[in-house]
């Protein structure tokens, strides 16, 4: 009888622990992590940093949405080994998205245009024309040549002049950098006449240490909690990424409440029906 009672008690403890785990994770907001691969950083050194970032994320069950600029796409497509690695990342649950530095937005911010636009060339400053690479059809030809399906992206539409660049193939979009941009719900917007569902995200490198974790704990599960980082941010401050990944894993080791951009928007918007 003592053995039966002991087994019963052990079983009860296991059940209670499982119930506690379910209760602890049931109220967590779904989290998303996006990586921007900048047009000026498409080089072998940054590729190695990206592979380190992906490995670090996989160790914590963090699915990434990897938004590539056309310069990164060109670099990858020229190397069968890189293509094969992308295929393995997709099989592991990561998403390949699009990143674009539009002409007008980069002039506002003083950053670097990626050379692709649907803006009439007559409107582009003569000194900028030397960077011109093609239209957004040319852009999408490169991005869709990468493995997997292209349905999401961050196309830098902060300046309405760049709305003409938005490809309707991308039914999901992300934007934002500020801390409070981390918290959002799927929002239906129109970009270049396209029906798009959008989330906002906070830039990991711009936040005080601990600020994202504090905000996450204050966020309910009705909202999506999204963070974005650049590969060069990771190269400079890998501990920032590890700190965030470890925090998420401490609350949800199995990654139950973590998704890619298309994973969460596909589940929460009418386009999934």
Continuous helix count: 10
Number of domains: 1
Low-confidence stretches: 7-25
Q: How many β-strands, per DSSP?
A: 11
Structural class, from secondary structure content? alpha/beta
Which CATH first-tier class would you pick?
A: Alpha Beta
Shape: globular
Helix content: 40-55%
CATH fourth-tier homologous superfamily: Glycoside hydrolase/deacetylase
What Rg do the Cα atoms give? 21 Å
CATH architecture title: Alpha-Beta Barrel
Approximate strand percentage = 15-25%
Can you write the helix and strand succession as a string? HEHEHHEHHEEEEEEHEHHEH
CATH fold title: TIM Barrel
Largest sheet: 11 strands, mixed
In short:
The protein has 273 residues and is α/β, with parallel strands linked by helices. The chain has helices at 2-26, 44-59, 70-77, 80-91, 103-109, 136-145, 211-218, 231-236, 238-251, 261-268; strands at 30-37, 64-68, 95-99, 152-154, 172-175, 183-184, 187-191, 194-200, 202-203, 224-230, 258-259.
């Amino acid at each position: 009888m003592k053995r039966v009672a002991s087994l019963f008690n052990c079983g009860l403890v296991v059940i209670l622990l499982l119930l506690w785990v379910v209760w602890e994770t049931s109220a967590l907001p779904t989290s998303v992590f996006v990586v921007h691969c900048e047009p000026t950083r498409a080089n072998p050194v940054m590729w190695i940093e990206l592979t380190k970032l992906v490995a670090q994320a996989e160790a914590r069950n963090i699915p990434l949405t990897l938004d590539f600029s056309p310069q990164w796409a060109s670099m990858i497509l020229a190397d069968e080994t890189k293509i094969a690695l992308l295929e393995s990342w997709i099989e592991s649950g990561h998403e390949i998205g699009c990143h674009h530095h539009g002409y007008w937005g980069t002039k506002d911010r003083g950053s670097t245009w990626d050379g692709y636009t649907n803006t009439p060339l007559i409107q582009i400053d003569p000194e900028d024309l030397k960077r011109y690479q093609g239209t957004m059809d040319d852009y999408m030809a490169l991005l869709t040549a990468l493995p997997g399906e292209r349905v999401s992206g961050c196309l830098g539409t902060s300046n309405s002049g760049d709305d003409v660049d938005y490809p309707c193939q991308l039914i999901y979009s992300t934007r934002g950098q500020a801390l409070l941009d981390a918290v959002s719900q799927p929002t239906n917007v129109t970009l270049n006449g396209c029906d798009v569902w959008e989330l906002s995200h906070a830039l990991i490198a711009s936040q005080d240490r601990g600020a994202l974790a504090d905000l996450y704990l204050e966020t309910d599960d009705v909202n999506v909690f999204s963070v974005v980082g650049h590969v060069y941010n990771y190269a400079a401050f890998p501990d920032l990424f590890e700190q965030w990944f470890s925090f998420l894993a401490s609350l949800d080791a199995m990654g139950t409440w973590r998704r890619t951009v298309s994973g969460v928007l596909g589940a929460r918007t009418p386009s999934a029906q």
